[in-house]
Amino acid sequence: MDPLSVTPVTHSVPMAKNHRSDRTLSGPVSRVSPGTVLDRLASGPSRAARITHTEHLPPREGRHAVWPDRIRAEVIAAVQDAGIEHPWAHQALAAEHALDGDSVIVATGTASGKSLAYLVPVLSRLLDGAEAPNGRGGTALYLAPTKALAADQCRSVKKLSQPLGTAIRPAVYDGDTPPEEREWVRQYANYVLTNPDMLHRGILPSHPRWSSFLRALKYVVIDESHTYRGVFGSHVAQVLRRLRRLCARYGASPVFLLASATAAEPSVAARRLTGVPVVEVADDASPRGELVFALWEPPLTELHGEKGAPVRRTATAETADLLTDLAVQGVRSVAFVRSRRGAELISVIAQERLAEVDRSLARRVAAYRGGYLPEERRALERALHSGELLGLAATTALELGIDVSGLDAVLIAGYPGTRASLWQQAGRAGRAGQGALAVLVARDDPLDTFLVHHPEALFDQPVESTVLDPDNPYVLAPHLCAAAAELPLTEEDLELFGPTTEGLLPQLEAAKLLRRRTKAWHWTRRERAADLTDIRGEGGRPVQVVEAGTGRLLGTVDAGSAHTTVHEGAVHLHQGRTYLVRTLDLEDSVALVEEASPPYSTVARDTTAISVLETDVEIPWGDGRLCYGSVEVTNQVVSFLRRRVITGEVLGETKLDLPPRTLRTRAVWWTVTEDQLDEARINPEILGGALHAAEHASIGMLPLFATCDRWDIGGVSVPLHPDTLLPTVFVYDGHPGGAGFAERAFHTAGAWLTATRQAIASCECEAGCPSCIQSPKCGNGNDPLHKRGAVRLLTVLLRGAPENAAEAAERKESEAEVPGVRPAPPVQPGPPSP
């Protein structure tokens, strides 16, 4: 077993209060194995029982190769000066493909050296180009999903290319780049690092100013490409098609180099993203230290929540305890948290408890999340790199943000939604072949409870495929407008943008967004076409969070989540300080806050109604029906709950008056008949609760079958729906136009609903709890719910399911007039509200 290197602690300190008062940590801690660290976390009778499973992944030897002989000697020397004598086999193979002009995706584990696999051929080609007469013989574009990752990679490129002199000129070009630097980047940088948002809004619409860069473009690097899934991935796919079109206009045909965490069928996903054939390099030849991976379930408390259900200790409080203990041990750790508020809460709790041990330790734990100001992000990144920080509570802004090398342990507060993301986060510890500890702390919901008691669902299953749909007309329509504004569209462009294009163009003409003149379509409006859509689906301008007394800008909140996170009376956390929202001005996109110390957090409640716009596919399930098609969802935040921070106990509810929002999207739904209700012994009094419970549990289980997060999907259950005239349960994609999740649910409905029934039936609670049928995002306060009714209802429904529901669905689809292409929806001048 490889030793676990930790930062020494040179003083003797007692454990934090409310932790383990039975022992102290004396003397320096160093070179401790991950198993030993886990034993210390689990010491004590109550702690040991919380570990439901421990998985040991053995170390792996590395396999070396040699760089292709076409790599410039100066580049190889620079790499060797950085301490890397020989490449791993997958790095050399990827470089060979890049030099051959093949687009390639490197899909290997975290810390396997993917960056070097694409950097070496890129730097070599840029060095060749620097010798051209104008010094601009070759350029490269690097795309990252976050600003932080682009900035971090820029630092790495500058360090690696320093021996090459001024031949390599890397520069970041994003929203944080000062205006005075942007012109220099356009004129002189030959390795530009940016993000898809800036490419969409800034670079492509201004392509004449970038003409010399685009004309010389040889490589496009797409880092963390597995994150481009769902609606966001579909938007990025169309942005890349616009980029390819403009490059062709200037005579360039860049090679795409993609880096991805381990994923199923990475070359298929990469081709769908880029639109070009992509070679796959997925045999990871890098060494790996031992990984100890523990599944951890917080204990039940004596408290009771909604409808008297037992309350389990929150994953937030449990993770804060573990992060505190790791910091006391001197173990460098990161805790990944799903929400921005959760990251702030964990850091605040850990800081308070560390201050009781040693005030100097409290300063060595912080939060890291999106919405911080650029200078705050950079300061945290520097502190993490230097080792000043021992612990960090972070959202995925860090997972995709910077190279967090040297970490010894990773805490994951709640299943992150996909196995791919789980392994990506766990892999952030144990760099340089060291051993590492990863702990998944379960939240109190059906999926997390299922996973910590069924470890085979995590450790014996492959990672998911990346789901994206570039032909989604809601996605494609605004990009056709943007492309036409950049360069008039012609019939030759139809193939590039996909099969839905031809049907959309007449609609765009009818909406007077495009006008056809001779053989080309032109953008007709004065406003910028690129502003028609937000590629991250956030639905408008970010809301600025401003301190009322001083006017100081604290940060921003996505427009799509403003109704639920910065409504009047909401608790807002920022850098360890607590604020109350005084007013939310939706017209000016400003939330005014004032510092306060409430003993509670807030959770918004909403109501949702749904209508069927079109049924694409319908198959019989006994007397019932399983359907897939287009729906319109109307949502309104109506109130918020105040919950005690540590325990989650409900303290009260306050009404809100916010406008409704509509969403046109895709959904799967199933219906049952009166005969089936009789067979399931479901009377009218419990029908609503049985449907509602089945809806909650099925949403909680869907991430096992689709590459999604339960927060990416929504649901509605109705005892008598006006469109179906039957009891109906809907599960829909929470993104305009759909994201492929409901479609995946439709095709795996037999396995998905079977697992849902099992999750409810196997829960040990009497009448339903957050581990089975209660939902943390329910707008009706988890009322009504009927656990046993849901089990009986699903039993009868599944009894009528076809032996192979997927085959039946595919057969129905094949009978459609236009296979695989759904009718284009009416085009609106802006994106639908989220």
From TrEMBL:
It comes from the Bacteria. InterPro entries: DEAD/DEAH_box_helicase_dom, Helicase_ATP-bd, Helicase_C-like, Helicase_put_actinobac, HRQ1_WHD, MZB, P-loop_NTPase. Signal peptide: none annotated. PROSITE patterns: HELICASE_ATP_BIND_1, HELICASE_CTER. Residues 95-281 form the Helicase ATP-binding domain. SUPFAM superfamilies: P-loop containing nucleoside triphosphate hydrolases (SSF52540). Residues 1-32, 804-834 are annotated as: Disordered. Residues 322-474 form the Helicase C-terminal domain. Keywords: ATP-binding, Helicase, Hydrolase, Nucleotide-binding. Residues 822-834 have a biased composition (Pro residues). GO terms for molecular function: helicase activity. NCBIfam families: DECH_helic (TIGR03817). This is DEAD/DEAH box helicase. It comes from Streptomyces lannensis.
